[in-house]
Q: What sequence folds into this?
């Protein structure tokens, strides 16, 4: 997996990702302490609302992230967003009212909703080889899981020498460091999309009109259902049902992270041999089945709970890690920012639904019944994915184009081998993008098929 770091550009961006992740982890701890400082016993409610605001920002802002690349160069946009995040996170120490937390969290997460998918869409432009990109995805998953383990430890050590306000400043410095690494990195230029339509909705159009991507969304229902059970209810499972100390909560979450890391380590080899569909479907089945047997496992004690949480971690990682590969082969390079933004928004919409559902069900009907219901939701997602994503899913599809006449920026290619009228100022050999009304005759051919302006619907 580490061989991918031989690419200097990716290595620099991975360093920027590490700085950003560690800073964000410190802020998670600091935000909890700030909420307790302002709200006391109601701190949990404040954090819950802040988490919901975060998800709302992701869902509402992220779909428009790709459109910003029409006006801003990618490197400048990423650097500007990092610096904006640094500014707003450093304002948190000056908060004196709870509503101010909510306002700053929304603005900060709005910047993150643009930064994260834009950053993610940059990696496949740097690592064009699928095998290398798969290793980068696994390395990124490993970084996320290690951050979840290391950030609380780092925060605890830093709190020995500073107040929690200092953690916000440390996060700001992390974002500034990330911006510094990006600004000195030569990123591939974004190819301008040759489309007459608005790019803000292009990612969503591609997503919902591509069968394998609709299946990916169904699998992310399984991710959110299983993950919400772990993230929301672990503290109740461990402290209330099992009667253990708070340290056991950290151990349970560590088991969940360890399972995710194991999957990230073995997935590159599996993806080389099996492709993306089989590991992702298997991961969803594993996560859903683990929740269905949770009532039995939780009643057996802490060790069985650790094993169960680790299995859920394996399953979730098996879904999340290869998703980038599916996105990469489902669009043109110029549409990647928009498609990654759509995936970011839709996946977090799943979390926005299942986070409060897991908490409400846990209080209302008990944890065993909650696990069973969430496991059923996960397996329903698997069933939908199996229907939507055919086992035989070739890249090249034969299809027919009907005759049509329209205008949009284009170059002369297999779809635009036409001549220009006398006096139009262009010749039939024009290669550069130009714009005029033109006609496409009916044609039947085969090529790597993705949704775009000339292929608005998936062939039957």
A:
């Amino acid at each position: 997996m580490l061989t991918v770091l031989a690419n200097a550009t990716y290595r620099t961006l991975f360093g920027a990702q590490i700085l950003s992740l560690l800073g964000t982890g410190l802020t998670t701890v600091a935000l909890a302490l700030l909420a307790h400082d302002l709200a006391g016993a109601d701190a949990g409610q404040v954090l819950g609302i802040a988490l919901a605001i975060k998800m709302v920002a992701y869902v509402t802002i992220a779909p428009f992230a790709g459109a910003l690349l029409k006006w801003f160069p990618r490197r400048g946009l990423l650097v500007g967003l990092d610096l904006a995040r640094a500014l707003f996170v450093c304002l948190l120490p000056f908060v004196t009212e709870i509503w101010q937390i909510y306002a700053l969290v929304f603005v900060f997460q709005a910047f993150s909703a643009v930064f994260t998918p834009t950053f993610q869409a940059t990696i496949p432009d740097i690592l064009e080889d699928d095998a290398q990109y798969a290793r980068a995805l696994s390395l990124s998953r490993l970084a996320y899981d290690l951050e979840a383990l290391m950030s609380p430890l780092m925060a605890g050590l830093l709190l020995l020498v500073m107040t929690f306000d200092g953690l916000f400043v440390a996060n700001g410095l992390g974002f500034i460091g990330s911006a510094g690494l990006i600004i000195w990195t030569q990123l591939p230029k974004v190819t301008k999309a040759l489309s007459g339509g608005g790019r803000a909705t292009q990612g969503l159009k591609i997503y919902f009109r591509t069968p394998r991507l609709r299946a990916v969304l169904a699998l992310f229902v399984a991710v959110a259902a299983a993950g919400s059970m772990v993230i929301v209810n672990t503290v109740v499972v461990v402290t209330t049902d099992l009667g253990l100390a708070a340290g056991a909560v950290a151990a349970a979450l560590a088991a969940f992270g360890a399972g995710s890391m194991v999957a990230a380590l073995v997935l590159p080899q599996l993806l080389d041999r099996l492709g993306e569909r089989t590991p992702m479907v298997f991961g969803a089945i594993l996560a859903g089945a683990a929740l269905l047997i949770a009532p039995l496992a939780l009643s057996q004690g802490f060790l069985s709970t650790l094993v169960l949480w680790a299995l859920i971690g394996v399953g979730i990682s098996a879904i999340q890690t290869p998703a980038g590969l599916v996105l990469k082969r489902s669009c043109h390079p110029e549409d990647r920012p928009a498609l990654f933004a759509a995936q970011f928004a839709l996946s977090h919409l799943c979390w926005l639904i299942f986070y409060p559902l897991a908490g409400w069900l846990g209080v209302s009907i008990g944890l065993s019944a909650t696990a069973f219901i969430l496991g059923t939701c996960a397996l329903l997602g698997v069933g939908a994915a199996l229907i939507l994503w055919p086992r035989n899913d070739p890249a090249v599809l034969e299809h027919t184009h009907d005759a049509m006449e329209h205008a949009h920026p284009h170059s002369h290619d297999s779809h635009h081998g036409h001549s220009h009228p006398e006096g139009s100022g262009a010749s039939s050999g024009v290669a550069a993008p130009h714009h005029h009304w033109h006609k496409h005759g009916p044609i039947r051919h085969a090529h790597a098929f993705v949704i775009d302006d000339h292929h608005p619907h998936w062939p039957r």
Q: What stands out?
A: The CA atoms of residues 135 and 268 lie 6 Å apart. The chain has a mean pLDDT of 84. The longest strand covers residues 404-410.
